[in-house]
Amino acid sequence: MNIVAALRPKVRSKSLASLALAVCLAGLTLAACQRSPSGPEIVISEAWGQPLPASAANGAIYMQIRNRGDQPDTLLSASSPVCSALELHETEQENDIASMHLAHTGLPIPAGQVVELKPAGLHLMCVDKQADFRQGAAIPLSLEFEKSGAIALEASIRLPP
């Protein structure tokens, strides 16, 4: 057997292994150099409202708004086809008296934080509701954020947790 012929397969397999290693290292280097996406990442969960009699003109909607991103965002507005208006309201307690008022425009959602809309606090008020808030109903909503844009969701009508 020829010595060159006997060594050729070993040289070829060594060259292929070196090439494969170089390709893998180049891929890892590129992956390490890529920047992760930045900006807000809004996730809305547990959107709900309490059941109300058909005669009730307005209804409150609650939820958790989580920003899993590394940049803040702001809730600018909200709408629903079953509400004449969907407004951000805040309930305040003073001397054992609760009062509700229209909240400031724009609700900041800090990076890495959760903002909770809950009873006796911030909530969305469905003004002049056009649908029954009956147990099991789903209320369509659209929330408009400064950076994340519009997010569509449904709020379930149920008893409080």
Could you describe the 3D structure shown?
The protein has one helix spanning 3-33, and strands spanning 42-49, 59-67, 73-79, 83-94, 97-102, 107-109, 114-117, 122-129, 138-145, 149-157. The chain has 161 residues and is α+β, with helices and mostly antiparallel strands. It has 2 domains: 1-34; 42-157, Immunoglobulin-like (Sandwich), CATH 2.60.40. Strand 9 (138-145) and strand 10 form a beta hairpin. The N and C termini lie far apart (83 Å). Mean pLDDT is 84; it is low at 28-35.
Portion of residues within helices: 10-25%
Largest sheet: 10 strands, mixed
Tell me, briefly, the overall form: globular
Count of distinct strands? 10
* CATH-derived architecture of the largest domain: Sandwich
Task: Summarize this structure as a short list of keywords or feature phrases.
10-stranded mixed sheet; Immunoglobulin-like; 10 strands; about 160 residues; alpha+beta
TL;DR of this structure?
The protein has 161 residues and is of the alpha+beta class.
Describe the secondary-structure layout.
Elements: H1 3-33, E1 42-49, E2 59-67, E3 73-79, E4 83-94, E5 97-102, E6 107-109, E7 114-117, E8 122-129, E9 138-145, E10 149-157
Parallel strand pairs: 1-10
Antiparallel strand pairs: 1-2, 2-7, 2-8, 3-6, 3-9, 4-5, 4-8, 9-10
